[in-house]
């Protein structure tokens, strides 16, 4: 008799456990479809000419990327130009991404003088404005 009750309890547990994931998976299957619209992160893809115009407008408003050229093919922004400041290259990439580019091919060339300045700044270490609080200025 004890074995019969154990088998019956085991059958009930297995049937309940087997049914639970199915109902859960249905609930999860419907949820991801609603998330992107609710999150507001889904951005409609702009046609290439509109995307290129949007990136050029951002570059025109910026001091750092004003001299760069951009063309868009298949949602990928191709940026060309030269700069004397290392950070301007990264700024151009960020502007193109925020304008809606799916990817960015940044071919901006950094001048040799800018590379040397950046290497010198790294070798020098922290600057006065970057010194942690609590450190005396003499300890540098």
Describe this structure in words.
With 140 residues, this protein is α+β, with helices and mostly antiparallel strands. Helix content is 56%, strand content 15%. The chain is built from four helices and three strands. The chain has a three-stranded mixed sheet with strand order 1-2-3. Helix 2 packs across helix 3. The longest helix has 38 residues. The termini are far apart. About 13% of the residues have low confidence.
Q: Please compute the radius of gyration using only Cα atoms.
A: 29 Å
User: What structural class is derived from the secondary structure elements?
Assistant: alpha+beta
Number of helices: 4
Distance linking N and C termini: 83 Å
| Succession of helices and strands | HHEEHEH
Helix content: 55-70%
Oligomeric assembly: single chain
CATH architecture of the largest domain: 2-Layer Sandwich
In the CATH scheme, the class of the largest domain would be Alpha Beta
Key structural traits:
single chain; 140 residues; Histidine-containing Protein, Chain: A; alpha+beta; 2 domains; 3-stranded mixed sheet; 56% helix
Quick synopsis:
This protein is an alpha+beta fold and 140 residues long.
Note the topology:
Elements lengths: L1 H38 L8 H14 L7 E5 L2 E8 L2 H14 L3 E8 L1 H13 L16
Parallel strand pairs: 2-3
Antiparallel strand pairs: 1-2
Helix pairs in contact: 2-3
């Amino acid at each position: 008799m004890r074995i019969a009750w154990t088998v019956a309890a085991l059958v009930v547990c297995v049937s309940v456990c087997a049914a639970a994931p199915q109902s859960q998976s249905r609930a999860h299957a419907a949820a991801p479809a609603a998330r992107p619209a609710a999150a507001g992160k889904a951005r409609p893809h702009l046609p290439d000419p509109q995307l290129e115009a949007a990136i050029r407008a951002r570059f025109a408003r910026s001091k750092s990327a004003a001299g760069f050229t951009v063309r868009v093919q298949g949602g990928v922004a191709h940026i060309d130009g030269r700069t004397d400041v290392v950070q301007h290259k990264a700024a151009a990439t960020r502007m193109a991404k925020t304008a809606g580019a799916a990817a960015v091919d940044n071919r901006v060339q950094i001048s040799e003088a800018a590379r040397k300045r950046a290497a010198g700044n790294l070798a020098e270490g922290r600057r006065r404005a970057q010194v942690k609080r609590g450190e005396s200025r003499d300890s540098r």
